[in-house]
Amino acid sequence: MCGIRKGRWNVILESTRELIRLALSEDIGRGDCTTEAIIDPDQKATATVYVKQAATLAGLSLIQDVFAALDARVRVVPLAEDGQTIAGKTAVSRLEGPARSILTGERTALNFLGRLTGIATLTRLAVAQLEGTRAKLLDTRKTTPGWRVLEKYAVRMGGGHNHRFGLDDMVLIKDNHIALCGGVAQAVSRARAHIGLSQKIEVEVDTMEQLVEALETSADMILLDNMNQDQLRQAVKWTKGRVPLEASGNISLQTIAGIAASGVDYLSMGALTHSAASVDVGLDIVFS
């Protein structure tokens, strides 16, 4: 599916740095009044970051990025790797440096780690349900504003695949586009005339009648929206492999296996990013 175009990397990296700056500013405000009141500015400390439950890790590098932005004197030593699955409470990072900075940056770093590890963990559980089928799991654009590249990275760490990162990645003709154009064929025809062969076109269909219409267009991929498993099986039979099929709409851990068994090529699951629960993470001072 879509990846990040080379020209966007600098923008993405800067947006991540800005997100970290905003997160630190949000938490620290005018200063960490508790830490500044009771911790000596020359106090050194060593701390361990833990993930406290079974999980698939993602976001460990954000710990380094947070403290690099806050205080470069804090040394961050990774004890695990993104994409690694742990069975229970596990030390994932060690911090060494000024105690004030470790305490001040703690919550921001843990928020990034907990959120991204939650997404990777849910993704890994969903991918496991696809075993024995041809289907691949995709994410969506239903991401937290400003967090998209990080949340999509977490999906990859969980074994999923990225759909488009933004509106400029590919043409995806949805139901509202079709309504405004007057039909599936008209929408695809306009899109192809506009972009030529420079980008792929995916078109969404809601009914079997629209699927028949879409199969007669130059669409490169067809999205089957909110179809039941009988409809999905029929769509696979009718399509006969001419174009890849993507199933989408209210896919959950309870339904994903049955949907994949229909024979579709892809399943897109918005819940990976809009409904994943953050995992339980913590930081303990182990020496001061």
Automatic annotation (TrEMBL):
Top enzyme class: transferase
Ligand binding (substrate): R107, T140, R141, K142, R164, K174, E204, D225, S248, G249, N250, M269, G270, A271
Pathway: Cofactor biosynthesis; NAD(+) biosynthesis; nicotinate D-ribonucleotide from quinolinate: step 1/1
Entry's Gene Ontology molecular function annotations: nicotinate-nucleotide diphosphorylase (carboxylating) activity
Reaction(s) catalysed (UniProt annotation): nicotinate beta-D-ribonucleotide + CO2 + diphosphate = quinolinate + 5-phospho-alpha-D-ribose 1-diphosphate + 2 H(+)
EC numbers, comma separated: 2.4.2.19
CDD domains: QPRTase (cd01572)
The entry's keywords: Glycosyltransferase, Pyridine nucleotide biosynthesis, Transferase
Pfam families (UniProt xref): QRPTase_C (PF01729), QRPTase_N (PF02749)
Gene Ontology CC entries for this record: cytoplasm
Stretches of the chain forming a coiled coil according to its record: none
Quinolinate phosphoribosyl transferase C-terminal domain span: 119-284
UniProt cross-references to InterPro entries, sorted A to Z: Aldolase_TIM, NadC, NadC/ModD, Nicotinate_pribotase-like_C, Quinolinate_PRibosylTase_N_sf, Quinolinate_PRibosylTrfase_C, Quinolinate_PRibosylTrfase_N
Residue span, Quinolinate phosphoribosyl transferase N-terminal domain: 32-116
GO biological process, one term: quinolinate catabolic process
Ranges annotated as spanning the membrane: none
Subunit structure: Hexamer formed by 3 homodimers.
Family, similarity comment: Belongs to the NadC/ModD family.
Protein's job: Involved in the catabolism of quinolinic acid (QA).
The protein's name: Probable nicotinate-nucleotide pyrophosphorylase [carboxylating]
Organism from which the protein derives: Ferroacidibacillus organovorans
Lineage: Bacteria, Bacillati, Bacillota, Bacilli, Bacillales
